[in-house]
């Protein structure tokens, strides 16, 4: 599913009108979709309250209020702004509405109200008026059910940021395509459940204005998933190497290796220094062991061209050894995570220069702190949302960047981006990220392109968390991975 920014959706609206499509008719369809959703979800509501702003979002609200009134509901409208300034489609919707609006300040929320938030849509770029913010706080105190039109007022459609106090809806209705702000935090928490209605803008117009931002769903990468055949053997399914730290620090790498095996790699080897071989051997069965102590030994082992992909970072240790290994691996499919990323905190340009000399083969998987260490200026730029930050990081590093979190964002140097939204909150547990690295490494070993491998890995990781259930530990996740043949 392609996601449209508010600017792109506005452009689509303009192109639809220019092509001869009646813009007021589009507004009517939007408002009627809102009323239908409200009636479906709250058929026994005592009072429907519609809050209308001065723009097109308010126009949707007036039409929804008219439809609810005609359905026999007890409807009240409260408006923000000067009604004398309404123009175009919004004025037409207001004039056709049989319910007389009252000023917003006159509304006193009640717990049993069903409130339609049609104050401000996805294009909001500034904090709400103090009077509106005060009303929002009163809505929260009253515990009213809120249905948001397009996006809860106070949430940025482009970044998901809360622009001051924002409405928290139990349900959000948007039109034609969702916006990034529906899935990026904190916007996603404010939206409640989300419905997208087709109001009649042609697909050709949406396609022409769309960029390259997607919701991370199987349709984005399923065609690249590994497929086995009767002629498959272990080397055809890829050989993944996971680098381990020394004695007492092998656990994270073992989690990655186990995940890599469960995710389909034909062979997985744990590359460990000699002082951790006995410890690692005690925990390994199907995973192989290779003693690698230094760059010379790694360089010799890399002469084996059957090695397909690598994971470096989980529990590896921070320092020059990690930097040297990374430089030697440049040009190969690699997941660089955890200590591998932090090892370049003092010299990120050294990593970027190494990666710039090759096609994009690396996947960087930083969490918030690691991202800040590797890209400090990008991270501190308050003008950028998470999506823009991840895009800037991918462009700078010539790597696919998987910016972890409850709203994981995956970006490629060519500008493609996906927002992952299927991860349950109980994935926030120690070792979960190590499992994610192993899944992505396994997909790289099986020749998935880096962007698709990162997107698939994030989605599979979320699905595994759902299957394992609340209270999971990282060890449970590999067994929760869905079968590729059952992904639709």
Automatic annotation (TrEMBL):
Biological process according to GO: metabolite repair; nicotinamide nucleotide metabolic process
Pfam families: Carb_kinase (PF01256), YjeF_N (PF03853)
Range of residues in the leader sequence: none
SUPFAM superfamilies in the record: Ribokinase-like, YjeF N-terminal domain-like
PANTHER family assigned: ATP-DEPENDENT (S)-NAD(P)H-HYDRATE DEHYDRATASE, ATP-DEPENDENT (S)-NAD(P)H-HYDRATE DEHYDRATASE FAMILY MEMBER
NCBIfam families membership: yjeF_cterm, yjeF_nterm
Protein name: Bifunctional NAD(P)H-hydrate repair enzyme
Organism the protein comes from: Martelella mediterranea
């Amino acid at each position: 599913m392609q996601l449209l920014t508010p600017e792109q959706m506005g452009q689509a609206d303009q192109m639809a009108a220019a092509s001869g499509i009646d813009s007021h008719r589009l507004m009517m369809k939007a408002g009627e979709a809102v009323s239908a959703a409200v009636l479906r979800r709250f058929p026994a509501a005592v009072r429907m309250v519609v809050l209308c702003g001065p723009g097109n979002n308010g126009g949707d609200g007036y039409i929804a209020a008219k439809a609810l009134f005609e359905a026999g509901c007890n409807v009240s409208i409260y408006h923000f702004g000067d009604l004398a300034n309404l123009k175009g489609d919004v004025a037409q919707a207001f004039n056709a509405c049989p319910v007389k609006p009252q000023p917003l300040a006159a509304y006193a929320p009640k717990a049993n109200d069903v409130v339609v938030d049609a104050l401000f849509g996805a294009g909001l770029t500034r904090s709400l008026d103090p009077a509106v913010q005060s009303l929002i706080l009163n809505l929260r105190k009253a515990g009213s059910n809120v249905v948001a039109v397009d996006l809860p007022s106070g949430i940025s459609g482009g970044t998901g940021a809360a622009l001051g106090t924002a409405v928290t809806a139990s349900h959000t209705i948007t039109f034609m395509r969702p916006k990034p702000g529906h899935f990026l935090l904190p916007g996603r928490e404010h939206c409640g459940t989300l419905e997208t209605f087709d109001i009649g803008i042609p697909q050709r117009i949406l396609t022409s204005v769309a960029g390259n931002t997607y919701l991370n769903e199987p349709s984005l990468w399923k065609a690249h998933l590994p497929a086995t055949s009767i002629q498959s053997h272990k080397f055809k399914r890829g050989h993944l190497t996971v680098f381990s730290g020394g004695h007492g620090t092998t656990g994270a790498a073992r989690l990655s290796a186990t995940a890599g095996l469960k995710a389909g790699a034909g062979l997985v080897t744990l590359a460990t220094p000699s002082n951790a071989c006995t410890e690692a051997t005690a925990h390994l069965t199907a995973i192989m062991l290779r003693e690698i102590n230094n760059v010379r030994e790694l360089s010799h082992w890399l002469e084996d061209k059957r090695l397909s992909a690598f994971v470096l970072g989980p529990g590896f240790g921070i320092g020059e050894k990690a930097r040297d290994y990374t430089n030697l691996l440049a040009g190969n499919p690699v997941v660089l995570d955890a200590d591998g990323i932090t090892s370049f905190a003092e010299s990120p340009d050294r990593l970027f220069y190494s990666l710039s000399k090759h096609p994009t083969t690396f996947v960087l998987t930083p969490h918030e702190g690691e991202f800040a260490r590797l890209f400090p200026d990008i991270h501190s730029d308050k003008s950028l949302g998470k999506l823009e930050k991840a895009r800037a990081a991918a462009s700078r590093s010539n790597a696919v960047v998987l910016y972890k979190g409850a709203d994981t964002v995956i970006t490629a140097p060519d500008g493609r981006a996906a927002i992952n939204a299927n991860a349950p909150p109980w994935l926030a547990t120690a070792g979960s990220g190590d499992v994610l690295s192993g899944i992505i490494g396994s997909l790289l070993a099986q020749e998935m392109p880096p962007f698709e491998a990162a997107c698939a890995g994030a989605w599979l990781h979320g699905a595994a968390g759902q299957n394992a259930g609340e209270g999971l530990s990282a060890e449970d996740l590999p067994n929760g991975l869905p079968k590729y043949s059952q992904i639709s």
